[in-house]
Amino acid sequence: MYVRRSAAVLAAVTVIGTVTPAFAADPTPSPSVAVPSGLYGKADPTYDGVWRQSLALLAQDTVDVQPATEAVDWLTGQQCADGAFAPFRADVSKACDAKTPVDTNNTAAAVQALAALGGHGAATGKAVDWLKSVQNADGGWGYLPGGASDANSTSVVVGALAAVGEKPADVRKGGKSPYDALLALALPCGDEDAGAFAFQPDKKGVLVANADATAAGVVGVLGKGLVTGAGKEPADAQKCLGGKNPTPADAALNGAVHLARDLSGTGYLKSVMPGAKDQPDYGNTADAVVALSAAGLTQRGREVVVWLEQHYAAWAEQSGPAAYAQLIFAAHASGTDPRDFGGTDLVKQLNATGPAPRAVAGGASGTASAAPSGEEKEDDGDSPFGVWWYVGVFLVVGVGIGFLLSGRNKGK
């Protein structure tokens, strides 16, 4: 979950004080570093290698595809000795040091993927120990160790804890659990945007509704990960529950109802990228399907899937393997067949972005990953509107520069 529109360059430009987006003119620039053969996607992996690999492997496992050994080996080889993962280590023979940009999100995503594949208990155990060591006093996590807690990072770590059999409610720092951190970011009943989650409080401590954070928060307070099935349908999904002090279950349903309200009319969530007025945010829309389904609003999620089936192709082809994985997660959560997603096969499209899998459900060989043609063309690189936006934004937020998120208007 939480794959965001990208350009790591935006984060870099923001850090030095310029707020004008600096997207590359070429939507599929050549990688500045060599892309390893075991890695999914062809774009420069510097900022999202582990993230996109983790999502790709997890999605394959979800649909009974056995990933290529070299793909799994590439991911495990990225881990630092202390258990953490950075977005990409070009030279894994060099030990990680204080300058290695390890973070909670790549680490938690890798845990979820490796736990699902099985047989990687030592690696996931070390990674979870590291995540626990950088938990904040409010019970949550920021993108970077020591960064202020945010809904998205906290939720993806919750998913990692759950994946290895931990009870997130029992993972505490200063007496606070991840659920305490997430509930502190939920807008209470009576607020104009009741039910939504904020990414973080703004500079004045005010909670501002954020669709990305809401989708993440719903799944997080339910103790779920990137892959989740449909929850029990609620008896009443109309009124806000819990007042100013909702339980995790109340907060999850409130958040899902808020997302459903935002999706009404258009069928998609709108992008908040500069200059993208009224344009769809495909990734956040797919995330919303997972959140709706997890909270029991599965039928509403299926309605949104219909819109995605009709419009996803160009976005996914540009954005690469993490986008295909994200769509597979949405299909899985809503009970939709990912092999017949608007008439095309998401699994085949994902497999085509990396090394041929060892086996595909039904006895098919890894040759099913051969590059498709036409609409199912292999992706030729993650565009500036792919997963790097997610990574770039949180790198900025992790060092205390949060104004990029202040542009996320209420109700988005």
TrEMBL record:
Residues 1-24 form the signal peptide. InterPro entries: Prenyltrans, Terpenoid_cyclase/PrenylTrfase. The chain crosses the membrane at residues 387-406. Residues 54-166 form the Prenyltransferase alpha-alpha toroid domain. Residues 355-380 are annotated as: Disordered. CDD domains: ISOPREN_C2_like. This is Terpene cyclase/mutase family protein. It comes from Streptomyces muensis.
